[in-house]
Amino acid sequence: ARAAYPSLKPLASWVKDFAARMEFMSTWLTEGEPVAFWLPGFFFPQGFMTAALQNHARKTGTPIDRLTFSFDVLGDKHGLGDVKALPSEGVYVHGLYLESATWDAAAGHLSYARPGEMTSHLPVVHFRPAVDYTPPPSHYACPLYKTAVRAGVLSTTGQSTNFVLHMSLPLPAGSTPDEWVLQ
């Protein structure tokens, strides 16, 4: 377990997941940069996020410490097969799930989970580099973790090694981020 990536899967499912990760990396190596990146396929997604920001910083000459991401959820109509070209800036990411919430593609915001559904698939998300970005107050800072267990070892930065970043996602009208923290 110390030599493997964090996972809550039993052995058979872990082996299947490991094979999918190797296939993702192999395809990337042999066919070039994918149009959308399968974020769960990375052992250290934080490094991938930093690399995406570094690429943007180099292209634009922007200091990396002024960059962060804004997020555009592409909606259900934009399944992975519908994303045909690389974005002009940033990266497309897939393979993410929401816990205790769902994405309302028609309205373009988070919505309360359907009864009996603890998790729901999040459509492809455009991680767009932004300079000095401050999310609007009508957005929820949705934490992104490597696994559903929100715990991990505290790193030298003071954050859990399981924590990746906060995704700023729009909320329904009249809803506040404080309500969603309790979800």
TrEMBL record:
Q: Which domain of life is it from?
A: Eukaryota
Q: Where is the signal peptide?
A: none
An annotated GO cellular component: dynein complex
Which residues are in the Dynein heavy chain C-terminal domain?
2-182
One GO MF term: dynein light intermediate chain binding
Single GO BP term: microtubule-based movement
Kindly provide the name given to this protein in its UniProt entry: Dynein heavy chain C-terminal domain-containing protein
Question: Could you tell me which species this protein originates from?
Answer: Chlamydomonas leiostraca
| Taxonomic classification | Eukaryota, Viridiplantae, Chlorophyta, core chlorophytes, Chlorophyceae
